[in-house]
C-alpha cells in the first residue's frame, strides 16, 4: 500500500474502505487468503481499532483478540440489521472468551457497547 510499510496485502488494503463503501471483507475470504501464510502463522493476537468490527475478519484464524472501540463499535456493520446482529453476537463471544478483550475509548462508547 502506498504510504505504509505494508506489503503483500491480499484482502485488506488502504482502498477497501473507499472502494467497498466501508464494508468489511468476509472472514472466509480473509481465511482462504492467509490460512497457509507463514507470516500469519506467527501471529498470536489481533488488535482491532477502527473499525472494531474488523475483528470478525480474523476470527476464523482462532487467535486472541483485543477489540478497541475508539468510536461507535458498529461501524462497518451498519449496512444491514443481520450483519449488525451477527457482529453484536461475535463481540459478546470475544468478550467472554479467555483470550479476548473488549474495551472502549470513552464512557459514551462503553455505554453504547453495553446497550447492545
Question: What's this model, at a glance?
Answer:
The protein has six helices and three strands; from the N terminus they run αααβαβαβα.
Helical residue percent band:
25-40%
* Percentage of residues in strands: 5-15%
Number of helices: 6
The best one-word shape is globular
Compute the number of strand runs: 3
Enumerate the spans where pLDDT stays under 50 for 5 or more consecutive residues.
none
**Span from first to last CA?**
35 Å
Averaged pLDDT: 85
Output the strand order for the largest sheet: 1-2-3
Please state the CA-atom Rg, rounded to the nearest Å: 14 Å
What's the main sheet like? 3 strands, parallel
Topology as a string of helices (H) and strands (E): HHHEHEHEH
- Structural class, by secondary structure, is alpha/beta
What key phrases describe this protein's structure?
alpha/beta; three-stranded parallel β-sheet; 13% strand; 116 residues; 6 helices
Written account of the structure:
- The chain has helices at residues 16-19, 27-34, 38-41, 55-58, 81-96, 107-115; strands at residues 45-48, 64-69, 100-104.
- The protein is α/β, with parallel strands linked by helices and 116 residues long.
- Strands 1-2-3 form a three-stranded parallel β-sheet.
- The longest helix is centred in the last third of the chain and has 16 residues, at 81-96.
- The protein is globular, with a radius of gyration of 14 Å.
- The model has no long low-confidence stretch (mean pLDDT 85).
Amino acid at each position: 500500500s502506498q504510504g505504509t510499510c505494508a506489503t503483500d496485502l491480499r484482502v485488506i488494503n488502504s482502498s477497501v474502505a473507499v472502494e467497498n463503501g466501508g464494508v468489511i471483507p468476509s472472514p472466509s475470504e480473509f481465511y482462504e487468503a492467509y490460512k497457509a501464510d507463514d507470516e500469519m502463522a506467527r501471529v498470536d493476537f489481533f488488535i482491532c481499532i477502527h473499525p472494531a468490527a474488523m475483528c470478525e475478519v480474523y476470527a476464523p484464524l482462532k487467535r486472541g483478540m483485543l477489540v478497541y472501540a475508539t468510536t461507535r463499535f458498529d461501524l462497518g456493520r451498519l449496512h444491514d440489521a443481520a450483519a449488525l446482529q451477527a457482529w453484536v453476537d461475535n463481540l459478546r463471544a470475544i468478550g467472554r472468551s479467555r483470550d479476548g478483550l473488549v474495551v472502549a475509548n470513552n464512557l459514551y462508547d462503553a455505554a453504547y457497547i453495553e446497550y447492545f
